[in-house]
Every structure is written in C-alpha cells, then in structure tokens.
Amino acid sequence: MKNIFNYSGATISDFENAIDQFGWVIYENALNEGLITQIINDLEPAYLQRREIQTQNGIETNMEGTLHHLLECDNFSLHFLEQMFCDKEIRFFLGGNYILNGFSAVINMKNDRPYVQNIHRDLRSFTGNMKMMIQMIVLLDHFTEENGATYLLSGSHKEDIKPSEEYFYKHADRAITKKGSIILFDSNLWHAAGKNYTENARKVLTLSFTKPFFKPMFDFPRYLGYEFGESLSESLRQVVGYNARIPADLYEFYQPPHKRMYLSSQG
To answer: Gene3D superfamilies, per this entry (predicted)?
Structure first.
C-alpha cells in the first residue's frame, strides 16, 4: 500500500495523497525506545487507578484495558505532546491551529473484549469534506495479525454508511507495522481493534485532535490548572487547549483581547 512512510522523510504531499485515498497513514520510526519505555512504565499505575474507578462506578464490563484522559502534570504525557509529532500533517488536515480532544491508551490483552473491538468511527456525526477531527494511534508494541493489529476500512471516510460486519472484515486492511510507529487517520473512517490471541499485552496510545472550537472530551486546562498553563510553552498551551477555553463568569469574559479565554486565533 502507498500509505506507509518513514517519519523523518515523509512530506505533506505524501500525507495529502494517502489520507485522501485511504483515509489513514502509517509513519514508521517516529518514537525512540527511551520514550516508548517511559510511556509503558507510566501506563501500569495509570491503568490500575482508572480500572478501580470503572469498577466502583459499575462500568467495568467491556472497558478492560482502556485508559482515558492520560494528560497529567507528572507523567509522560506533556513530554510526549512537546515533541509535536505529525504537527504539520495535523495542521494541514484541520486547516490551522488545533487542540487535543482526547488522550487515551489501550492495553489489548488475550481474551479481553473491550468496546474498541467493535466496528466504529470516532465521530458520531459524519462530516464528509469538513475536516473536524483526526485520530492518532501510537504503537508501543509491534502490530501483528496475532496480537490484534487494528482493522481500517480504506476509503470508508468518504461514506456515511456503517458497513456490515461481513463486508468490513472481508475488505478492511490491517495496520501491520512495528512499535514506534504512528498511525494517523480521518475520524470518519470505520475501524476496529483486533483481538489479541497471544500471551503478551499489545499497548497503544490513542489521541484525537480537533479544530479549536470543537468541544473536547475532557477539560484539560481546568484539570491541570490555569496557573499551570502559564509554565507551558506556546505550542503546548495551544495543543492542550489553553487558548480555547470557555469563560465561567463575567470577570473571565470581560477581558482585553490578549487575556481572553478564547483567543481570536482559534477560528
């Protein structure tokens, strides 16, 4: 397939052609081993914390191996975002500035049946040519047919029709690639995580990015703290969403342009 590139040598033209034709692109050799190790080490305690809350709230069924909202002050997440992986591609796709919509992970283990194995797309409403959201999968292990490499139905980002299971699994491609790779795909694309038949967990990060006016899944600036945002670089402030906040009172609303919660550069 003509949608697999080496990260350091890929061009915007490569991305434009592949994302239009297939709806998804693989960039190999994007992350180094040190960063991968740092992420994996942080995932275990993060999963235990989230699994406990899922169980306490009675929603543990079909949530096995899922970790949501990993952006925190003291784990790998800010360091990861600071690398600005695929920034030029995301900017091209979304037409300018963008923000983080969701920052999650999946630990795909043998015999688990989490909801991400269902055929789905990550936008509830089909947006067609209006590009609102793009997904990123970051491979922390190799993707193989045996350990549940993701199924992606190439070209389905152009159709507002959910395929049948028979059609999907007959025609979908598998993202067979190595750890350290990044997969970008149009959020209109129909896809599904595969089942893991091996004894080893298959781990990924899953992120989504949107135009700044699109409501994120989680209020990251409020969670991290508005004062904490002052310590971040301009690029991180943008991606985390500090430039696209919602005023909570009249004092926050009535501010000079450079101090407003939602800046004019956000579209």
So the answer is: q2cbj1_9rhob like domain (2.60.120.620)
